[in-house]
Design a protein that fits this description.
single chain; alpha/beta; Rossmann fold; 9-stranded mixed beta sheet; globular; disordered N terminus
């Protein structure tokens, strides 16, 4: 019955969006070339970077920071970590003070024994921004990070300058995808070797060979931390149907987003179709919709050169 209700709800949202469709630009981007497979370290080795921790109201939060100017926060997906953005940081640091963030309970940020619903991530980010001493930021989130960024922008619109929702979660509840994410993620933290971690990362990519050894090693190190199995079980609450349904983005809250917004999708996202991305863009008043080809769920990693160009042009309003 829940599946039927989801379908009915999705049709209702689509019809409402079509009735109040904003001015929207849709662009489909293809680089036409295979990007260089840079290692995580070589992608940042030539820059002035700072890997450190910020106290966000008692939560020790790991960030990788570079550049000066307007603050840009980069938010990873579920069970992820800031290394998801190492191929993007220096290109953006030319224009912004970039902080790639390990979100609450993720990476090497503190993992309090508490709930891990969307509002928990939102409030942690608010505390982080307060700790930075700034009023407004650009915010760009991928997958879970996009879900969190959208709710943050609806809850605290005065604190967002420009917003990017990159293959964002929070629009649908697909039981098959939810089960696969939960199974792969829990297997990765329970496994004593790196193979399960590799499989979790390969799920994200159109071309699984793009998963480099150092990316596997970076995530494996996160997953080997004490207490990570229990933390992952809490993080995976959003893959339980009841919890997910009460956290889904609503038409009403997406209508409260006032920041200029880029909704960036891909042709081969394994979690949601291009139509889901289009619907998300339809529900945000001041939005631009762009589709990158030949990528899965991590376009910022799979094709960083194309992603960086699109992303920076939007953030600079070019």
């Amino acid at each position: 019955m829940q599946g039927v209700n989801n379908i009915v709800e999705e049709h209702a949202i689509m019809e409402a969006a079509q009735a109040t469709h904003p001015v929207l630009t849709r662009t489909q981007i293809s680089s036409g070339t295979q990007p260089e497979l840079r290692s995580l370290w070589s992608a940042i080795a030539g820059g002035d970077i700072h890997l450190h921790f910020i106290d966000a109201k008692g939560v020790r939060t790991r960030v990788l920071e570079a550049g000066q100017g307007p603050v840009l926060l980069l938010l990873h997906g579920v069970s992820g970590h800031l290394e998801a953005y190492q191929r993007n940081i220096l290109a953006h640091a030319v224009h912004f003070r970039v902080l790639a963030v390990d979100m609450l309970g993720h990476g090497f940020t503190d993992k309090p024994a508490r709930s891990y619903e969307i509002i928990d991530y939102v409030e942690h980010l608010r505390d982080l921004i307060d700790a930075l001493g700034v009023e407004k930021v650009h915010m760009s989130g991928e997958s879970l990070g996009g879900w969190v960024a959208a709710r943050f922008a609806a809850t605290y619109p005065e604190r967002i300058d420009r917003l990017v929702l990159n293959t964002a979660g929070g629009m649908i509840a697909d039981p098959k995808v939810m089960e696969r994410l939960k199974t792969l993620s829990l297997a990765a933290v329970r496994s004593p070797d790196r193979e399960a971690t590799r499989k979790r990362l390969e799920f994200l990519m159109l071309d699984p060979t793009i998963v480099t050894e150092d990316l596997v090693e970076a995530r494996f190190a996160c997953f080997r931390q004490p207490g990570m199995i229990e933390t992952m079980e809490r993080i995976m609450c959003l893959q339980d149907m009841d919890v997910r349904m009460r956290n889904l983005l609503t038409q009403e809250e997406l209508g409260r987003i006032t920041a200029p917004t880029l909704v960036l999708w891909t042709t081969h996202d394994p979690t949601a179709s291009v139509e889901v991305g289009q619907r998300l863009a339809d529900l945000v008043k001041d939005s631009r919709f762009t589709v990158m080809e030949n990528c899965g769920h991590w376009p910022q990693y799979e094709d960083p050169d194309t992603f960086n160009r699109i992303h920076i042009d939007f953030l600079l309003n070019r």
